[in-house]
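Following up on my earlier thread - several people asked me to post the actual chain instead of describing it. Fair enough. Here it is, all 299 residues.
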Amino acid sequence: MPASTDTTARPALQSGTFTIGDKRVHRLGFGAMRITGKGIWGPPRDRKEAVNVVRRAVDLGVDLIDTADSYGPNVSEEIIAEALHPYPKGLVIATKAGLERPGPDQWEMNGHPAHLRKACEGSLKRLRLERIDLYQLHRIDPKVPFEDQIGTMRQLQQEGKIAHVGLSEVSIAELEMARGIVPIVTVQNKYNLVDRAYERMVDHCEQVGVGFIPWFPLATGKLASSGGPLARAAERLKATPSQVAIAWLLARSPVMLPIPGTSSVRHLEENMGGALLELNEAELRALSETKGGAAETGA
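Reply from S.P.:
Thanks for posting it. Predicted structure:
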């Protein structure tokens, strides 16, 4: 990584911008799942460090923070408010509803309208907000009619409790069905260098102007092994494989909004450095042609 200078002190500002509804943000954001306890359950081992991570993210130019009521549960949202409220102008906080937590590393879908409404009220209170900038349906619950879940999101928007609606882990068909009910501004699906099951979804989001938020963005798997294109690019740029993975995501599409998460200030600063890297055409081509993921599921 280049040494810190005036132009690199806030690296997220170098990631380009994207407009989420009426909110313009820099494309490299921060995912706040890891500032909770083990198994994404309970408080973090070091709450002071968690607060410092969130504050440092904003110092580094981040103006998009992604969380969920299920992270903790509730803990991530509470720490964000503790760290940043009253919020700096221009900061977009995205949260989610639709998953319940019976215990560590356990996740259960609940898309019933009553639950989504209660979850929204809880997030508003914990985040100390009058309106949530981006509210995402964490999963589409197959036990609840699709129209009821998306319709509830529309109602929450009409009531002024949320500004914009997003979806998570959906197909292109589901996205288009939802867009027939309420404007959808983002899709958050798993996507990284080694898992490109949603390759077609990325292209579709670009075509229709919907932001794509890749979760688990830093996965590199065996691509980081010596001699591979990822390792070679990292060596040339004097960067880490994770930084190169972020740089590749940012180059992949102008609607890409990576949100790497961590519970460490040191790792946060390292991740943000990915916005400062410029991969050459040969590196981009080699990385794009190296497929390590599952079969396409984004149809």
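The first strand starts at residue 17 and ends at 20. That should answer part of your original question.
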